[in-house]
Design brief:
142 residues, alpha+beta, N-terminal domain of TfIIb, GMP Synthetase, Chain A, domain 3, 2 domains, 30% helix, 26% strand, OsmC-like protein, OsmC/Ohrsf, KH_dom-like_a/b, OHR
């Protein structure tokens, strides 16, 4: 694709009970299926954890970019993403997401504005919008 500014490639062997390696070998992980999916809950990770990890990092980057543009310091912020494997009405499997952001030190209305702008900017949010059930929640900081 002519407009690609970065791409990453990973290869999987063995599905949920195998291994995944990125083309540059920076990611080399064992995969294990969780008990909830009939697996042995082994020591490896799974596709939902990998998706949640990538989404959380990407979303937090978007959150920081929006705040930086508004000259607001959110250095103590955090983003958690929960990815669920769900059964759709037609019986097929699908995904759901819940994005929780903590943005301490600024008023709630400003934090909510930054959160919504980050959801509009984040490439993961753009790619999944309208395709999977998703919640975006501003949570109180501890």
């Amino acid at each position: 694709m002519a407009n690609t500014i970065y791409s990453a490639t990973s290869t999987a062997w063995g599905g949920r009970d195998g291994r995944v390696v990125s083309s540059d070998n920076r990611v080399d992980l064992q995969l294990s299926a969780p008990k909830g999916l009939g697996g042995d809950d082994g020591p490896g990770t799974n596709p939902e954890q990998l998706f949640a990890t990538g989404y959380a990092a990407c979303f937090h980057g978007a959150l920081k970019a929006i705040a930086r543009g508004k000259k607001i310091d959110i250095k103590d912020s955090a983003v958690s993403v929960t990815v669920g494997l769900i059964r759709n009405d037609n019986g097929s499997l699908g995904l759901s997401t819940r994005i929780e952001a903590q943005i301490p030190g600024i008023e709630r209305a400003s934090a909510q504005e930054i959160l919504e702008a980050a959801h509009a900017l984040c490439p993961y949010s753009v790619a999944t919008r309208g395709n999977i059930p998703s919640e975006v929640v501003l949570v109180e900081s501890d």
